[in-house]
Amino acid sequence: MEFIKKSSYEKAETSEETEQTVKDILKNIRSHGDEAVKEYEKKFGKSERTSIRLSEEEIEIAIRELTDEEKHLIDNVVKRVSEFAQAQLDCLLPLDKEFGDGIRLGHKVIPVETVGTYVPGGRYPLLSSGPMVAAPAKVAGVKKIIACSPANYNGSIHPAVIYGLKKSGVSEIYAIGGAQAIGAMAYGTETLPQVDVISGPGNRFVAEAKRQVFGEVGIDLVAGPSEVVVFADESTNPELVAVDLLAQAEHDPNARAILISTSKKMADKTLEEVNLLLETFNENSPAHESWERLGEIIVVESVEEGISVCNKIAGEHLHLHLKNNKDIIDQIYNYGSLFIGANSSVVFSDKVSGTNHTLPTNRGGRYTGGLWVGSYVKVATFQEITGAGVDYLATHSSRQSEIEGLEGHHLSAFKRKSN
């Protein structure tokens, strides 16, 4: 394995300062509700809003700013994300089965009641961000969906974000950002209801707040800056690889773009293409810093070694630019989402293909997938024991409880025996 370009990446650890800052914010919001939220919005978001919730009139006025084309694009995102989420939900079937005479066991698929979605303000108003987190919740059957997003557009939220949230089934929208938004949703305030699950990406303060409130509420996952791993061989087009790397690098100065190649010639050519393309990017694009600090190109000796490196990195997006992609897809198992073939652009998923773009980073792909309709439902078991099943289970349970020294357990089981 050879590094043509090596990054300075180190897995991010939550700093003590960030952890304590978030802890103080959450404690204050839990104690003082709306007052604390407004205090932090003024301090961190420079927001002077007197109402943290967007009124229906404010929402309608904002939506009127959008063109028909913008609305059509967002409508299509909502439609495709919802259709894919519905197809996923259709796979989650209830279970009701006899496991022996008189022993009926199963599970129900139950939507959570209230979901809080977080949509980052970011550098650009990303049209897909709202639908990605909210539309699957609506498909899941969640009764109440609320959303928080920073008030960084003329004292409110960008109209495109507002429209996407409304089309996705959000009933209440709040102009709150950062850790204070997570705290408000987790604990509830005078204005904002407490939720059952919080979803959506954000900066390090949002991520840390989600970590700290987990248990009080459920969360989807903790997602950091974007990552892409492109695994390529000599058959691919270096220019396509270069644009795929830079498409993710431009998300954030801390985004990671990694090329793993079996061909040194192709790797060298890709590096040339990246440098040429960067000359055409806006000088303020995060892609410059991201690629300089964290961009990486690795040449491996074989496809097998490349597979091993891919599984070790467990990147958020894994894009296969190989001649025989389908021969190896069952050997790669650590990633957030898999993109098979040079034309299966990660950008398609970022925007509109239908799969969710909220995905695990920082090697989270080793143990979880991304946000999906299943993030908003509970698979809860049930049991009904009758007839011969009572005697069978009571005999086993009472004897096991005696051995374990659990008198109450023994009696609860023994009293149900017929003789």
TrEMBL record:
The UniProt keywords, alphabetically, are:
Metal-binding, Oxidoreductase, Zinc
Q: Which InterPro entries match?
A: Ald_DH/histidinol_DH, Histidinol_DH_CS, Histidinol_DH_monofunct, Hstdl_DH
Xref: Pfam families: Histidinol_dh
Q: In its keyword annotation, does this UniProt entry include Repressor?
A: no
Q: Which CDD domains match?
A: Histidinol_dh
- Molecular function in Gene Ontology: histidinol dehydrogenase activity
Q: Where is the signal peptide?
A: none
Q: Where are the transmembrane segments?
A: none
* Cofactor(s) for this UniProt protein: Zn(2+)
Q: What is its EC number?
A: 1.1.1.23
Per its UniProt entry, what is the enzyme's top EC class, as one word?
Answer: oxidoreductase
Q: Which domain of life is it from?
A: Bacteria
Determine if Zinc is one of this entry's keywords.
yes
Similarity section: Belongs to the histidinol dehydrogenase family.
Protein name in the entry: Histidinol dehydrogenase
| Organism this protein belongs to | Oceanobacillus aidingensis
